[in-house]
Amino acid sequence: MGLLPFSKNLGRPERTAALEVILQALAEAGMGADDVDGVVRTTMESTTDAHIAFCLGIPDLRFFGEVGHGGGSGCALVGHAALAVEAGVAEVVVVYRARNRSTGGRPWAQAGNQVGGDAQWSVPFGVVRPVDQIAMLARRYMHECGITTRHFGEVAVACRSHAARNPGAQMRDPITLQDHAAARPVSEPLRLFDCCLESDGAVAFVVTTLERARGGARPPVLIRAHAQGVGPEHVVMTSYHSENPLQSTATFAARNLYRRSEVGPNDIQCAQLYDAFSPLVLMSLEAYGFCGPGEGGAFAEDGGLQWPAGRLPVNTSGGSLSEAYVHGFNLIAEGVRQVRGTSTAQVAGLEHCLVSSGSGVPTSALILGAYR
Amino acid sequence: MTAAGTPPPVADRPVPRRDEGSAPFWEACAQGRLVAQRCTACGRFRFPPRPTCPACRSFEHRWEDLSGRGRVWSWIRAHPPLLPAFAELAPYIALVVALDEDPIHLRMIGRLEPACPEPAIGDPVQVGFERVVDQVIPLWRLG
């Protein structure tokens, strides 16, 4: 794994950051660019797979590809890399994300005077920002499941309490449920602390065979399961058009995840759940089977998500709400730290950590396992 | 260059870019009608428009006039930071309406008339229309 410090300004172009962080990940794995034969990227990444190979002098790239849908893609990149390794198509596959907002900007603010595609059905009416799109789903979730904004606050408070222990997190001052309720509204029912940070950062992983992973400076991390999911009649972000929109893309990714693994929700001691907005965490608790449908709020009550005493410590680095927002790639990094035993909110005796990518978009998830 | 003290012009609100799938919807709005695609093979409504019926996969469909009545499925109240064109309207309420003809398969995003009080999920709404730049788009009111 490679990771550049999260910041408000990465201080270098995305391409440079991507190359640096990939080399860092390879060095930790005891490898070099000559060993790489696969690269997988997310479509929102500005540097292409072939250009990475061009810059790093990768001599023979045999597997390359990309996964779309922004925050939903992170875990899927690792999954695709694992498939290639399992199939013998490639042996050392690099996965990466580098984000510099000063070169990238806020995607929603790029809307022109005419909007086409799916956006023509939402943007002209003022449903423009990701926060608007998720707030719409959040209010429906509150209505159908008896969820309150206080439950959203539980997520924000838990993430912040974890970030307070993490020197690499961007927002470390503890907050209370009262602070959450008093913060300015952004898109009601969501308020400031329901929203993720705006961050720069770069993260990379090396996916390879267990045999080669044993040669690294750090213990290997086992990929126990990986899966993607969409579900019926999904519209990216404005997913209000299926028969049951509260059955999110994560519900379908979860089915695929557990179907292909011996590991179930009861075997998982910690989860990194995609938290671009706090309600997504509660919905993901339900989707990934940590509680029943509609029980996400009750699960989070009274510090249920907080390390160390909560029933399931969630987003133990502070997550996207308090550590950094790099489209969930920091959540994968924290999953790696948890199974290696190096988190700043380490779950004792951890065997498995679940990591999810964004729901509300076509999504993906991983179960990472400790190597003993 | 702008003269000192002159505020920059407010950007226009974004309008839909019609494509071959959506043009009938926006053209009907311009005539004050709300329409939706309906499969002529199995009868199912669908929205947003697409070439095929997701239930029976038929390409055959027609555009049907709707009553313009529905119920609030969900709603938000948006506050800044917003696109400049929407910052002028803030805070404003946007909603998802489940149409009476088929509240499961016909849910449309819209904006609520500024004069309306705060809605509740389940409240009845009625479509109206507003002109934005050179286009006409739905604008909903309670009742």
Which characteristics define this entry?
heterodimer, A: 372 residues, alpha/beta, Peroxisomal Thiolase, Chain A, domain 1, 5-stranded mixed β-sheet, 4-stranded mixed β-sheet, B: 143 residues, mainly beta, 5-stranded antiparallel β-sheet, 3-stranded antiparallel β-sheet, 38% strand
Q: Unreliable stretches of chain A, pLDDT < 50, 5 or more residues?
A: none
Q: Helix coverage percent of residues of chain A?
A: 25-40%
Q: Give the overall silhouette of chain A.
A: globular
> Can you tell me the number of structural domains of chain B?
1
Number of strands of chain B: 9
The fold-level CATH name of the domain at 2-104 in chain A is Peroxisomal Thiolase, Chain A, domain 1
Strand content of chain B: 35-45%
Strand adjacency order, main sheet of chain A: 1-8-4-2-3
Total number of beta strands of chain A: 12
Rounded radius of gyration of chain A (Å): 19 Å
The CATH superfamily of the domain at 2-104 in chain A turns out to be Thiolase/Chalcone synthase
Please describe the biggest sheet of chain B, giving its number of strands, its sense, and whether it closes into a barrel: 5 strands, antiparallel
CATH class membership of the domain at 2-104 in chain A: Alpha Beta
* Number of continuous helical runs of chain A: 13
Helix content of chain B: under 10%
Question: Which architecture of the domain at 2-104 in chain A does the CATH hierarchy give at level 2?
Answer: 3-Layer(aba) Sandwich
**On the 0-100 scale, what is the average pLDDT of chain A?**
96
Structure description:
The complex is a heterodimer of chains A (372) and B (143). The longest helix of chain A has 16 residues, at 130-145. Chain A is built from 13 helices and 12 strands. Chain A is of the alpha/beta class and 372 residues long. In chain A, helix 6 crosses helix 10. Chain A has a domain at 2-104: Thiolase/Chalcone synthase (Peroxisomal Thiolase, Chain A, domain 1, 3-Layer(aba) Sandwich). In chain A, strand 11 (352-356) and strand 12 form a beta hairpin. Chain B is mainly beta and 143 residues long. Chain B has one domain (23-142). Chain B is 8% helix and 38% strand. Chain B is built from 2 helices and 9 strands; from the N terminus they run βαββββαββββ. Chain B has helices at residues 23-30, 84-87, and strands at 15-16, 35-39, 45-46, 61-65, 69-78, 92-99, 107-111, 124-132, 135-142. In chain B, the strands form 2 sheets. In chain B, strands 7-6-5-8-9 form a 5-stranded antiparallel sheet, with helices on one face. Chain B has a 3-stranded antiparallel sheet with strand order 3-2-4, covered by helices on one side. Chain B is globular, with a radius of gyration of 17 Å. The chains are: A alpha/beta (372), B mainly beta (143). The interface between A and B is large, with 39 and 41 residues.
